[in-house]
Amino acid sequence: MKYRIRQYQSSVRKRFFENFYVFKKKFSKFRDRFMEKGHEKMTVMFIPHNEKKIFNFQISKFTILFFILLFMIVVATSSYAVISHNAVKKEEQRLLMSYEDIRSHLLRFEKATNNMTELIDWVADYLGQGYQRVKLKIAPGWDLAPLAAVRREFGDDLALQVDANQAYRTSDLTTLRRLDAFNLVLLEQPFPAADLLAHANLARQVATPICLDESISGLHDAAAALALGACSVVNIKPARVGGYLEARAIHDLCLAQGVPVFCGGVLESGIGRAANLALAALPNFTLPGDISATRRYFDRDLTQFFELRDGAVEVPAGPGSGAVVDLDTLAELTTEISIVQI
Predict the structure, then answer these.
(1) Known catalytic membership, residue 29
(2) Which pTM value belongs to this model?
(3) How far apart are CA 339 and CA 173, in angstroms?
(4) Within a 13 Å sphere around the CA of 81, how many CA atoms are in the beta-carbon half?
(5) Is 318 a residue whose pLDDT tops 70?
(6) Where are the domains of the chain?
């Protein structure tokens, strides 16, 4: 048996070397033929447009091949340099935008960061006015400490949610996972608006419900986000999604899929506030919204004031949205009138 194995091994070794020598011989012939052809010289003629004299010179095929390869290397290197430059510029722009986002958040809360007691006073004041839910703006460096302070002061029964306004990146997952410890109502828009996959990945890793705000600019965005599992709550801002018909369509989609919504705002006057209140009266607006009393932002408004009573703002009665425009205030604050012919 051992003899047969050795005989088989010897046969295999013999065939291998035979094939190797055949290949080596063919390769040598090809190399010799290539070298012979490569040294052949070609005559190149150059005939100027306005001259009778003809210039000609000889150049080997190797030289021609060398210049072709050199040209290809230059083109490839230049293309790589251009692509790399564009990629660096895009990344630089993204980082600058990220820096500006974070910087704006940090500046916004700089005063409270220097004095956590003042943050606690703000929260206590709003709770004293009757607000039943507290929403804190967070950013890298301003997240765990203020949340811990608020929870320590007001307890676990306070309805507390946070809004990141796209301030975080996927490198912050560890910090975002630690937010689960604060029993939040939701975490709103932690990542950039276009990055639905990052939100979907985070949603699978945390117990805190993920809410989308800036990512939802219309019904199509809402449908895509829900299909990807990027959120379990949607903030509907009529001014951002394109009006109240689109806002109603998003509401109906979320209602059909069992996803709660709440109504956001963009500092509307009383005219927009009244319409937002009507929208927020729809059945799937089950979470406290961002519609506050008029006096939180304005000393004067274009309409009647909306007051907070028992933690809620009443939907105005009357025709349309129920807003009653103060014509005297409107005339006083008007800076320009444009007439559009239809």
Answers:
(1) no
(2) 0.65
(3) 52
(4) 6
(5) yes
(6) 38-108, 116-328
